Amino acid sequence: MKYRDLIKNMTLEEKASLMSGKDFWQTQEIESLEIPSIFLADGPHGIRKQAEEADHLGLNPSLPATCFPTAATVANSWNVELGEKIGHYLGKEAVAQKLNVLLGPGINMKRDPLCGRNFEYFSEDPYLAGKLAAGYITGIQEHGVSACVKHFAANNQEERRMSIDTIVDERTLREIYLTAFEIAITEGKPLTVMSSYNKLNGAYTNENLHLMQEILREQWGYEGVVVTDWGGSNDRVAGLIAGNELEMPTTGGETNAEIVQAVKSGKLDVEVLDQCVDRLLQLIFTTEQAFASEYKPIIDINEHHAAAQQAAEESIVLLKNKGSILPLKPASKVAIIGQFAEQPRYQGAGSSIVNPTKLDNTLQVLEQFGINSIGYEPGFERYGKKSSNKIARACELAKQADVVLLYIGLDEVTEAEGLDRQNMRLPASQITLLDALYEANPNIVAVLSCGAAIEMPWIHQVKGLLHGYLSGQAGAKAILRVLTGEVNPSGKLAETYPLRYADTPSARNFPGKEVSVEYREALFIGYRYYDTANVNVLYPFGYGLSYTSFAYSDLAVDASGATFKITNSGERDGMEIAQLYVGCTSSDIFRVKKELKGFSKIFLRAGESKTVHISFDDKTFRYFNVKTDRWEVENGDYITMIGASSADIRLQGSLHVAGSNAPLPYEASKLQSYYSGKASNVSQTEFEQLLGHPVSTTTWDRTHPLGYNDTIAQCQYAKGWFARFAFHMITFAHWFLQKIGKRSTANLIMMSVYHMPFRGIARMTGGIVNMQMLDGMLMMVNGSFFKGLRHLLKERKKLMQMAKSK
Ligand code: BGC
Q1: Which pLDDT value is given to residue 294?
Q2: Residues 104, 109, 110, 112: is their CA dihedral positive or negative?
Q3: Cα of 127 to ligand 1 centre, how many Å?
Q4: Quick check: CB of 42 below 6 Å from ligand 1?
Q5: Residue 24 CB less than 6 A away from ligand 1
Q6: What are the residues facing 466 on neighbouring strands?
Q7: 275: enclosing H helix or E strand
Q8: 42 CA to centre of ligand 1 in angstroms
Q9: Cross-sheet strand order for the sheet of 403-409
Q10: Residues of the chain with pLDDT under 70
């Protein structure tokens, strides 16, 4: 231990006091020992440091900071150096705002397109997500502050995120849900990791010894700090034993007292606590140095804004360009339609919300681009119902134009932290507008702003489609530069766009039942599934157009990797993203058809050729064997594919790889869905066969009194009239708020009340409600209303007296 001497001088109470926050965002200092308090704040695409009122829901404003494109956007750049550059600017701003730990990047897999937080995550592919995240982390930490990779792990939905139990087989867990973390942690070396809210195979992630000890610490050699997600701690001592150093936010000292008690009773070895303290001190002292050496309170706002614009430019994806409608011809008369042109949708909602230093919108910056605009019409209301008047005015304008630029997308209420989307559609008001515009003038170029995949049954009604995703505060100019051809688009999708939601492999098991969500589709997520099961999609993973074209040739494959040539065969300079996929020809172990194992983004002048080499690495041929419980390599022939997308393989080679001679892990006859790749409708029996054990019951136990980990939604089944009354009040408030158009507040009720486990009331209120008071509340909901109320008031009084006497 590095700080053994310092720790020797601490009392047990002092050690415990470091293990949870002193408030919402800061850790506890110990002045006498010169241990400072450090500040942690969101977030992944811009700093969200709240100077005044604190919350983790994106409600109260934070200090201005550059809002970069979100992770879902930057993932389309497939550019690790760009990730590092964004990280560099984030790190600089973190230092300027005296922030020790930046709570990002978020790297959970996009298991299902409806996950409300997909806009904050990179990809459906662990390799791409892991590499980009490692870039961000390196950039952020270059400045001496800490990145915090989150949410570890298997947190792939927002619905019941604080109580859901993710049931996933070990191979899928390792190959899909942990590989991005493994790459980010072993290559990026973040000083902090955030555990997720959910349970993983029966245990809360921060208490899960398999995840936290065996995998994170022992196999990956992680030596940094684990912080809980805000309010995500359950059994504090169990968390600490698993190596979860820091609980956030404060619980007013309540859980620190539990730690003290556990040491005194012998339940917790003081050495375990000391090691946690040691690792936390390491984080505190290293990150504090950032302010000593480099501290500058001011950033160059314009430079950072320009960096955000460049990031957006490289991340925009051109999805359709019929008849080369783009780039816009200088003489074309252009009608700008769609409310998003006036008020951009440029970031997500929830804890990652940034208060931007500047915000460009299309209408304001249009004249800098020489576009021959004949006017603007909003055409729809962002959150409202369709308006015939607005549509009529938009059609009038469209009729006079050569090209209609239509700015549409998802609004920030539909796509937000804490709630999943209900469907993959655009709002009906926008589709009605598009239908009408198509009749008025079919030369439509749609500019999309959404943080996740959507269905596009209307795709035949647009000639051009540019997807800006959530492109940050400087996105408007970036999009215009691509529309006019100043920038040649080079982004490619980091997720698949299925034709319809029902085609997605997780559709039948999302967001799960009351208690758990079963990942029955196993390895078959995203393109891994569509590709293997031959399911048609709208846009495949890795797809994106350019204003030029690229030819691939001369593939050579050897043990070190794949070498090939790319030529820019068109007339403009441009960048191409070449993708390396590998598939195994043996069918002894079930596999997906191909998996991304490398990529390279190359700039080529018109007519230029370059030789590209993509190296194999330790992840290229490995699979996780559940019999030997380790990574193995299967002996056999592997197909090496070089593609312009997952569905557009341009070159193919073959390589024999000697295996590690492990025993076969499966009995094929019992896993037919997995061996056939048609894994979207797996039976319980077959899933249990894959898991190696029966699944536990998926519904709430309605016979037991409600406890700490039951959710407030379960009040509907409680014994006490009060609980059922409270439940109806909550559902009524939700319904009413939606009815009167307050969707955002309605969402907040679902997220922070309805789905909240009772323990969250104590964990999230910073010591205002303690566990004893919660006991009183539980008595009230479980049928002893007056007894519970008396208990609650008595405990409240005690707490106030204790606070006074301090
Ligand atoms: C989110 C985290 C975030 C934390 C602090 C939580 O609700 O899940 O991603 O970092 O709040 O705001």
Answers
A1: 56
A2: negative
A3: 24
A4: yes
A5: no
A6: 318, 447
A7: helix 270-294
A8: 7
A9: 317-321, 464-467, 444-449, 403-409, 333-337, 372-377
A10: 293-295
Helix (H), strand (E), coil (C) string for 468-509: CCCCCCCHHHHHHHHHHCCCCCCCCCCCCEECCHHHCCCHHH
| Residue with CA at minimum distance from ligand 1 atom 12 | 56
Tell the residue nearest (CA) to atom 5 of ligand 1. Answer: 56
229 C-alpha to ligand 1 centroid (Å):
6
The closest alpha carbon to 123, from 102, 138, 105, belongs to 105
* Amino acid type, 364: Q
| Atom of ligand 1 minimally distant from the CA of 120 | 9
Check if 25 has its Cβ closer than 6 Å to any atom of ligand 1: no
Q: How many helices (H) and strands (E) does the chain have?
A: 24, 26
Interstrand relation of 622-625 and 630-633 (parallel, antiparallel or unpaired): antiparallel
DSSP state of 39: B
Q: How far is the CA of 352 from the centre of ligand 1 (A)?
A: 8
Whole-number Cα distances in Å, 532 to 387, 524, 588, 665, 678: 44, 8, 16, 21, 8
For ligand 1, say whether the CB of 117 is within 6 Å of any of its atoms.
no
Closest CA to 750 of 781, 779, 727, 778: 727
**Ligand 1 atom nearest to 161, measured from its CA:** 8
Three-state SS for 247?
strand
Which residues, in sequence order, are bridge partners of residue 20? Answer: 247
Could you tell me the two tokens for 603? 């700039």
Instruction: Compute the distance from residue 116 Cα to the ligand 1 centre, in Å.
Output: 14
Helix, strand or coil for residue 661? coil
Ligand 1 within 6 A of 50 CB? Answer: no
Note whether 125 and 526 are within 8 A (CB).
yes
What six digits make up the tokens of 21?
């926050």
Q: CB–CB of 284/36 below 8 Å? A: yes
Collapsing DSSP to helix, strand or coil, 339 comes out as helix
Give the tokens for residue 503: 């085609």
Q: Are 106 and 150 in contact (CB under 8 A)?
A: yes
**Residues that are catalytic:** 229
Among 229, 248, 755, name the best residue to mutate to test ligand 1's pocket (greatest count of ligand atoms within 8 A of Cβ): 229
Tokens found for residue 716: 């509907």
| Backbone phi, psi, residue 408, to 5° | -135, 175
Q: What torsion, rounded to 10 degrees, do the Cα atoms 243, 245, 248, 250 define? A: 120
Residue 535, C-beta contacts closer than 8 angstroms, at least 6 positions apart:
498, 503, 529
Q: In whole angstroms, how far apart are CA 634 and each of 41, 176, 637, 661? A: 44, 18, 9, 7
CB 509 within 8 A of CB 500: no
Q: Is 133 in the pocket of ligand 1 (CB under 6 A)?
A: no
What's the predicted TM-score (pTM) here? Answer: 0.97
Q: Which residues pair with 146 in a beta bridge?
A: 101
Strand ranges for 80-173 from DSSP E: 101-102, 146-152, 165-167
Closest CA to 280 of 321, 248, 303: 248
Question: Do 563 and 580 meet the contact criterion of CB atoms below 8 Å apart?
Answer: no
Report how far residue 652's alpha carbon sits from residue 555's, in angstroms, rounded to the nearest whole number.
7
Q: Say which amino acid occupies 220.
A: W
Cα 485 from Cα 358, distance rounded (Å)? 24
DSSP code, position 444: E
Q: CA of 763: how far to CAs of 13, 286, 566, in Å? A: 20, 28, 55
Report whether residue 56 contacts ligand 1, using a CB cutoff of 6 Å.
Answer: yes
Strands (DSSP E) along 385-501, which ranges? 403-409, 444-449, 464-467, 497-498
Q: Is the backbone of residue 417 left (phi > 0), alpha (psi -120 to 50) or beta?
A: beta
Which two tokens mark 87?
Answer: 């990280």
Distance between Cα 57 and ligand 1 center (Å): 8
- Ligand 1: which atom is nearest the Cα of residue 148? 10
What are the distances in angstroms from CA 16 to CA 152, 204, 277, 655?
24, 21, 8, 55
Q: What share of the chain is helix, strand, coil (3-state, %, to 5)?
A: 35, 20, 45
| Cβ-proximal residues to 653 (8 Å cutoff; 6+ apart), any chain | 555, 556, 557, 562, 639, 640
